[in-house]
Amino acid sequence: MATSSAKGVRWNLNDLFSSYDDPRIEQTLDDCRTRAEALSRRYRGRIESTSGLTPEELLAGLRELEDIHEALSRVGCYSGLLYAADTSRPEYEDLEQKVEQRSRDNTGRNAFGRLFSEITSSLTFALEKDGEKEDLNLSQILALFHEPDRNLRQRAMDALYDVLSQHGQVLTFIYDTLIQDHQTMDRLRHYPNPMVQRHLFNEIDAEAVYTLMAVTEANYGLAHDYFRIKARLLELPRLALYDQYAPVITEVTPFQFEHAQQVVLDAFESFTPRFREIASEFFAKNWIDAEIRKGKRGGAFCASPSPQLHPYVLCNYTDNLRDVMTLAHELGHGLHGCLSRKQSYFNYDTPLTTAETASVFGEMLVFDYLAERHTGPRAQIGLLAGKIEDIFATVFRQNVLTRFEEAAFAARKERRLTPDHLGALWIEANVKYYGDAVDMPEGYQWGWSYIPHFIHSRFYCYSYVFGQLLVLALYRMYREQGKSFVPKYLSLLEAGGSDRPEALLNPMGVDIHNPDFWQKGFEEIRALVKRLEELVGKAKDPGQPMGKSSQR
Ligand SMILES: [Zn+2]
How far is the CA of 260 from the centre of ligand 1 (A)? Predict the structure, then answer.
């Protein structure tokens, strides 16, 4: 098991409950049930009748409902965090499942989602690596696209599409069925188009999303510029799809956790001392679990259970530069979760579209802080390319995914979908993005078939586009306005989910229906690509050797 400099950095969950068998857990669950039953006896059937309810009674009912949800969230959060920190303990898994079952409903449609998960999580890809045959799972095969060895990346991609094609009939059937189910729901609810369900959930109107997606498409050329620069960096005439995530700089300089803490806090402070003050608490009070540990869940997240509680951050710190950005991202969520604690439980969470406002902003602050201080051109190139590719993955690629979904839904109105038809629609959506800057290999028509969002949360992907561009545009406004931007931004975070995103953003001078606003985000991306191009030019200049950067 790898060790990292974050050893010993683990969270303390005693603010929630004392242990998995704390009797207060069962008590809370029982109490919530009793209160929910009483609430339903008191209110069922009375809300729709004109005679029944006074405004005061309705408010009291809502407050009680909010209290019940808040109490349940404490248990849900505790069981979730306990299990994430150690998935090998069966008693933690039992608790997690018990709590999940008490608050879950299951329908026929969900069974197709589970079938999809079972198929994709049981896929095996046989591959020869370092002279040995290995059986890899889906996430392992996808991770190989980040390897420096081109031949390995190519073989990984071949294996991916080869195995997916063998399951193509079933994966097509699942997707086709879910689209049909979605369309039935739309008909029954009189929704004019299939994205409306998601728009309601996101508290946003269709026109704003339409504008956002059109502006994004108009900027695909920016990606072509970058792909050409990357081809030069990799010394290739042209990129193939499996080169997209190849590292441009392969040497890695370790980044200690303590150093990461200092960088994040300093970068946050450069925006406002308030950010430093809040983020410091996470380190001082053990609200972060960062060490690498057997049985601990992979990835990273920030849980903000309720306004009565503080957030918790989990990450797996492996001493890489990427981990510093992840820490900044999750602590950004943490800032948001702390600042919006003045809201009530129902007004606490934001919809998906604005959920990443503080996290991506936090990343930008740290990115700029590092970019100013990493003086070596190679380190800067690595940092910039990483940032640009992250942004492309959340902006351009998610736009492509959403366009594909639209096309699939439109096609399903005519007839049942076949693997060939879906494959053709997928390629069509991708050609617009990659143009002639990236070669798409044989087999890529299966590229749609393992993406979980299409199955579990349809039309979710445009929320990523919205969130990322919103932050880039806000960040640009910060640079233009300087310190006068800070209090407005703090108020935005403090507002949590108390209103629609559009209404919360209005006081900042943001109009989400105006294409110029979204274009601001792309100007920020263009500036990054330009900076990279200049650095590459400089680094290739014989007068400037491509030395490693000096580590501070
Ligand atoms: Zn996030």
Answer: 18
Q: Give pLDDT tens digits for 28-42.
A: 999 999 999 999 999
Half-sphere exposure of 545 (CA within 13 A, CB side): 3
Dihedral in degrees, nearest 10, Cα atoms 533, 263, 259, 279 = -140
**Both structure tokens of 518:** 């979204």
Ligand 1 centre and the CA of 154: distance in Å?
30
Distance from the alpha carbon of residue 356 to the mean position of ligand 1, in angstroms:
5
Cβ neighbours, 10 Å, residue 550 = 10
Q: How far is the CA of 408 from the centre of ligand 1 (A)?
A: 28
With b meaning 16 or more CB within 10 Å and e meaning fewer, what string describes 357-370? bbbbbbbbbbbbbb
Contacts of 521 by beta carbon, 8 Å cutoff, 6+ apart: 395, 468, 469, 470, 471, 472, 473, 476
Rounded Cα gap, residues 155 and 446, in angstroms? 16
Neighbours of ion ligand 1 (CB under 5 A): 359
Residues 172, 160: Cα–Cα separation, whole Å? 16
| Alpha carbon of 355 to ligand 1 centroid (Å) | 7
Paired tokens of 466: 């919205």
Burial class from Cβ neighbours inside 10 Å (0-12, 13-18, 19+) for residue 45 reads exposed
Residue 450 near residue 138 (C-beta atoms within 8 A): yes
Residue 233 tokens, joined: 């960096």
**Residue at 227: amino acid letter:** F
C-alpha of residue 373 to centroid of ligand 1, in Å: 25
The DSSP H or E segment spanning 126 is strand 125-129
Cβ count near 306 (within 10 Å): 22
Residue 291's pLDDT is 93
Its pTM stands at 0.86
Predicted confidence (pLDDT) per residue in 121-134, tens digit: 889 999 998 889 99
430-469: pLDDT as tens digits: 999 999 999 999 899 999 999 989 998 899 999 999 999 9
Tokens of 161: 């599409």
* Token pair in block for residue 395: 């902006």
Under DSSP, is residue 312 helix (H, G, I), strand (E, B) or coil? strand
Nearest to 99 by CA among 117, 82, 111, 124: 82
Centre of ligand 1 from the C-alpha of residue 229, in Å: 28
CA pseudo-torsion sign 159, 162, 165, 166:
negative
Dist CA 526 CA 237 (whole Å): 23
Helix, strand, coil percentages, rounded to 5, for the chain: 65, 5, 30
H-assigned helices in 203-308: 206-218, 220-233, 257-271, 273-284
